[in-house]
Amino acid sequence: MSLVKKVPDLFTSLLRPLFEHSQQWTRFSALYLALESKVSMIDVDELEALLDFLTTEDLLPDKRKTAYTHQGKAISSVGWDFQNKMLVLVAETLAHIRPDARTKGLLQTLYDCSDIVGLGIQRFELRHILLGLGCNEFIEERDRRDDGGLKSSILLLREELADAHRKILEAILRQTTPSYTAAKKRSKMRALAILLYALRIPEAAVQDLLILRQLDNVQGIEAVLSGYIAALRLDKKELAQDATWALAELQKMNQDGIVGGSLSSLLPKFPISPEIHQIDSLGIAVAEIVRALLHPSLIIAYGAAQLLSAAREGREDMAALLFSSSDERLLGILAIIAGRLWEAEARPLLMKRLDQGYTPGSWWLIEALPSLPGEHTDPLFQQTILHALQAEDPRVTIAATHALQELDIALVRGMAPALQSALLYWREQGESAKTRSSYVAGDCPTCRTEPGNAYAHVSHLTDRL
Fold it and tell me: For residues 440 and 339, what is the distance between their CA atoms, to the nearest angstrom?
């Protein structure tokens, strides 16, 4: 994605033929990349046709970018739902290249139908686009119609998100040069953008941003911010200038009637890796960052994990959490950073944890095993995965099939008897082989059709042998 944005002209000739591809997912992925590149690869007629399709068809509902727990809490999120983000991108592009009465009419119709379409939170973005087109009277009238003169729940949520952005900026200022107060506009907003993109704040889930508004465990928030500022080697004075100006702009948006102005709209768009590279020292107490791992906002919890793994600090504390916690989200985070944090010890640690018994989140540990240091021919490694094929929880077995897909097919063929046994086991489970709270692995063909079906996963893998 970042490469397409950086050199879009290079990809124009590659993406254009894919707009007519027979496979729907390939076709819309190419259109999505073209829209994100901000280069005019799609003409107005194509944009209108795409807008009509996206508002009338259910585009691959199984293609989700968020994994959920039993209770419906997000474990990880990397952005909006694909279809809704496509709608907003089409609206933005139309408004940019043809800001006329026809575009206003199309987007106003989409805004009125947003509840039917299921646009949800992205209705805020569409509202901002319409205000930018000068449709203030339309928005004001809809606001009055929605709630009889009172603020609608959508506007209230928008205000809460803006307040969360202000709280984030204020927390950043507490970690920077306190003497700087002038709200001078920065030409590039480089320092602030690097920090926020590295923390994945512009693409964070709404619930994670709202938690930051409440300032739960403010020490954890400030510890992670301080660690990232040091790890990214940001100039504190420049960062203070950026944050001060952004705060002033958010206030100005609110005064101008743009309720809950977006912090993301102020940031320059340029590619940046969200990974923190290896650092010599955290510069703050390791215990504070370890505590931040349990922060209710994924932004802070994942940020803390990145800092600890980059500094190779807190290994013993993290191992203790691995063995003592059954928190699904925490186990998912530990699985992501295991290789970088524990290196050669990572796989034995995860397998030992799995030997204790399966708990919510164990599937993240199983999925991570093939990518960790160690031979795939290791009998203990193979035994751990094969044992998971007949777990009580379908998600554990689905994770095991994903892990087996990462191995050489010759190795998997040697496991055929265990796979046949697992196939019989899940056939006997009937409907119990299915789970609704599954996640989708992008490189698994079974996930495209039956993402939550353990029997289907084992069956399709067996068919490949």
Answer: 22
